[in-house]
Amino acid sequence: MKAITIKPNNIGVEVKDVEIREQLRKGQALIKTVMTGICGTDRGIVSGKISFAYPPEGYTYLVLGHEGLGRVEETGEDVNELKKGDYVVPVVRRGCGECLNCKIGRQDFCETGKFVEAGIRGKHGFMREEFVDDEKYLVKVPEEVRDVAVLTEPLSNVVKAIDELLFLQRRMIWTCEDSTLECRNAYIVGTGPIGTFFAMVLRTLGLQVFMLNRREPSDIEAYISEKIGATFYDTRKGLEGLPEADLIVDTSGVPEAFIPLMKKLKHNSALVLFGTVEGEKAEFVSDLVTEIVEKNILIMGSVNASKKDFQGALNYLSIWKYRYGDVLTRMITRVVSIEEAPNVLTKKVKGEVKTVIKWS
C-alpha cells in the first residue's frame, strides 16, 4: 500500500509502497484512511528539527501522520461499538502498560515516558491507505461532522489543556459575579489551527479572547475571529491597546513572544504553555519571578490528549457546525493528493490554516 514515510533524524519525506505486518485480530478493526491532517510536528520531523521521532521496532522508516480520519472496512471478533462504514478518528498516544495513568486510559499523563505515538515515536502513523487498530483507540465520528472530523486530533489537545486549566483554577473563585467567565480576558499567542481552536473553545466558554500575532490577519483569520467574536491583535502596535489578561495561552513555543506579555497578567491569572520550538531563547529575570509569586500566577504545560478529550472535541465540532456556519470548513484551507503531500510537508503555504491529505 502507499504510505508517506520518513527516516527519523534525516531530512526529507517520500511516498512509497510499504508492507506493514498487521493482521486483523480480536477487538480490532481495519480502517481505510480518508484524510490526514498536516501540522507543525509533521514538518518538524520532515525537516529533521524534531529529534525524538523514531520508527517501530523492526523497521528502518516511520509512516507519518497523527491527525487521522478513516472509515471502518472490516471488524474482528468482539468489536462491539463499530461496524463497517462507520467513520472514526484514532487516538495518537498508546500507553506504557506499566504506570497507573496508562492502565486507566490516561496515557497523556504517562509517568514512565515509555509510551509510543502514531506517526511520531515508535508507531506507524496514519498517512497510509489503511491500518489496523484496536477498537478502544478509535473514536466514532457523528455523521454531521464527517467533513471536518480530520480536525478532531488537534482540537482534542486543546480540550485537554482547557480542562486542566479549569481544574487548576478552582484553587480560588475564578468566575465573575454573574457566575460566568465573561469578565475574563484571554490572550492567544499564535493564530494557527491550535491557536484558533483555543480561541474558539474559550469564546464558547464565555471569555473575551484576543488572538495575537506579529502581523495583520489573513482574510481567513479575519473572517474566523469576527465570526467567533474574538479580537485579532497585531502586537507590533505595542501592548497598550490590550486590556489586562486573566489568561495567556502560548501556542508559538517562542519565549520572546509570550514573556513580554506576562507583565499584563492580573492577580490569580494563568499562563498555559502549549507550543514547542527548539533553540529559541529569551531572558527571564528575577523581577518577573517575584511578580509571578506575588500575583499567584499559575504556569502549566500541556501535551497530548486521552480518548475522552477526542470525544469532547467531536462534541465541540458538532456545536460549532451549527453556531459558526462555515468556519470549520474554511479552516481547511487546502486539500492535496498523496502525490502532492511531500511538497506541502516541507513548507507552510502562505495563508494556510490547515492543509489535509485526501486518501479516499
From TrEMBL:
SUPFAM superfamilies: GroES-like, NAD(P)-binding Rossmann-fold domains. It holds the Pfam family Glu_dehyd_C. Substrate binds at T41, E117, E153, N157, N304. InterPro entries: ADH-like_N, Glc_1-DH_arc, Glu_dehyd_C, GroES-like_sf, NAD(P)-bd_dom_sf, Zn_alcohol_dh. The keyword Transcription does not apply. It catalyses: D-glucose + NAD(+) = D-glucono-1,5-lactone + NADH + H(+); D-glucose + NADP(+) = D-glucono-1,5-lactone + NADPH + H(+). One of its GO terms (molecular function) is zinc ion binding. It is an enzyme of class 1 (oxidoreductase). Keywords: Carbohydrate metabolism, Metal-binding, NAD, NADP, Nucleotide-binding, Oxidoreductase, Zinc. Its EC number is 1.1.1.47. Residues 26-143 form the Alcohol dehydrogenase-like N-terminal domain. Signal peptide: none annotated. Its cofactor is Zn(2+). Gene3D superfamilies: Medium-chain alcohol dehydrogenases, catalytic domain (3.90.180.10), NAD(P)-binding Rossmann-like Domain (3.40.50.720). Catalyzes the NAD(P)(+)-dependent oxidation of D-glucose to D-gluconate via gluconolactone. Can utilize both NAD(+) and NADP(+) as electron acceptor. Is involved in the degradation of glucose through a non-phosphorylative variant of the Entner-Doudoroff pathway. Belongs to the zinc-containing alcohol dehydrogenase family. Glucose 1-dehydrogenase subfamily. This is Glucose 1-dehydrogenase. It comes from Stygiolobus caldivivus.
